[in-house]
Design a protein that fits this description.
alpha+beta; Beta-Lactamase; Heat Shock Protein 90; elongated; six-stranded antiparallel beta sheet
Length: 353
């Protein structure tokens, strides 16, 4: 007897991954959060043994064996589980034996919760508060700095016209160019606060635009690989803001690799996702993956702050602007980085909360 949607409709809405397995350790049910966690579709894994879908640690496998043989429950923290794509997850796990009258043929319920989700939620809330305060401070400073800069530039131009010695104009040009550079910096600090212009957009058209811009800028040595889920529906958003957000992230990656390396643009669908404390039936997940040197450890916690940069000559605004634009779309952005691989993950709601 199989598991019907009606039998376990409530499990579909849970944020934690839930699997039901039988005596043979075959998967009989997998909820949407489980599909997201294991990066599989329930249709492709139902009826297959758990060991064929993922690699359980000895601790978790022992708990499953005891649950089947002795009807024992189990709760464990920081349990390793390997996904089919090679990624290792660290989870809080609960194994619960089921009574025969609850679900015929089902023996165990496995609930899996990524440790990173709990840590990330707490960290994100703390960082958002700090970043909001920083942004307001910098925005106010930018307003205060713009007017004096205009006066300095104007005075330098007047002085240049009055100088009799052409050689001295080199110095006034330094003043004018540096004033222009600071004016541009101030404008970029203020830009994220413009109003959104929402319309229906296709995420892959946005990614193709980003790809063409990067290939024009880094024409030799940079490889950009597409890994798209073309079944993704369109979403409502500001096309220019989304292009700028993805471009800032991908350009940072290309610059970190000095234009020599590979960037992967990957899209996937997610179901039953919580973003910005709201639950959505469907969301898209966009990953920008590079094989560069990684983000320096000393700035990873602060990399979304304004004016924080790990690259000489960088102004530290690219990621701040990207995060602002993603938040305008009620989405989330996070990053995992180590030498040889950096992954920025953007999640955006597709359907209303």
């Amino acid at each position: 007897m199989g598991v019907t949607h009606a039998n376990f409709a409530g499990l579909d809405l849970l944020a934690s991954a839930v699997l039901l397995i039988d005596d043979e350790q075959c998967i009989r049910y997998l909820n949407p959060a489980g599909e997201n966690l294991l990066a599989v579709s329930s249709r492709s894994v139902l009826g297959r043994r758990l060991s064929e879908v993922c690699k359980c640690s000895s601790t978790l496998q022992s708990a499953i064996d005891n649950g089947l043989q002795n009807n024992w429950g189990y709760t464990g923290q920081n349990i390793a589980l390997g996904r089919a794509d090679g990624e290792t997850l660290h989870l809080n796990c609960t194994v619960t034996p089921l009574r025969p009258d609850i679900a015929a043929g089902m023996r165990l319920l496995l609930e899996l919760q990524p440790i990173e989700h709990h840590l990330a939620a707490t960290r994100e809330e703390r960082l958002l508060e700090q970043q909001q305060a920083n942004r307001e401070l910098i925005r106010n400073l930018a307003h205060e700095i713009k007017n004096p800069l205009g006066g300095i530039r104007g005075a330098a131009q007047l002085l240049e016209h009055e100088l009799g010695n052409p050689a001295l104009k080199e110095y006034t040009q330094v003043i004018i160019k540096e004033a222009d550079r600071l004016q541009d910096l101030m404008q970029r600090l203020l830009t994220p606060h413009r109003a959104m212009l929402p319309t229906t957009v296709n995420i892959h058209e946005i990614l193709e635009r980003v790809r063409s811009l990067l290939m024009a800028e880094f024409s030799e040595g940079l490889k950009i690989r597409r890994d798209y889920d073309i079944s993704l529906p369109e979403l409502v958003g500001d096309r220019e803001q989304l292009i700028q957000a993805v471009l800032n992230i991908a350009r940072n990656a290309a610059q970190a690799m000095a234009g020599q390396g590979e960037i992967v643009l990957r899209t996937r669908a997610l179901r039953q996702v919580t973003l910005a404390k709201k639950r959505y039936r469907m969301a898209l997940e966009l990953k920008v993956i590079d094989n560069g040197p990684g983000i320096p450890e000393e700035i990873r916690e602060r990399m979304f702050y304004p004016l924080v940069s790990g690259r000489e000559g960088g102004n530290g605004l690219g990621l701040t602007i990207a995060q602002n634009f993603v938040q305008h779309h009620h989405g989330s952005i996070d990053c995992y980085s180590r030498p040889g691989q950096t992954v920025f993950t953007i999640r955006l709601p597709i359907e209303p909360a």
